[in-house]
Amino acid sequence: MASDLSKCLQANVEYGYINFFDYNPLKNTFNEDFKTIVLGEKAYTNSQKKYVLFDTYFQYTAFIKMYGLEELEKPLFKKEVYHKNKILEAQMAKEFQLTEEDGNELAVIFKDTMDLLAVDSLDWKAFQNTFIYKIENDWFRYLNDWRIKNRAWIYKFGGNYMLISHSEDETEFIYNEAVFKKGEALKK
Question: Are 159 and 187 found together in one domain?
Answer without folding.
Answer: yes
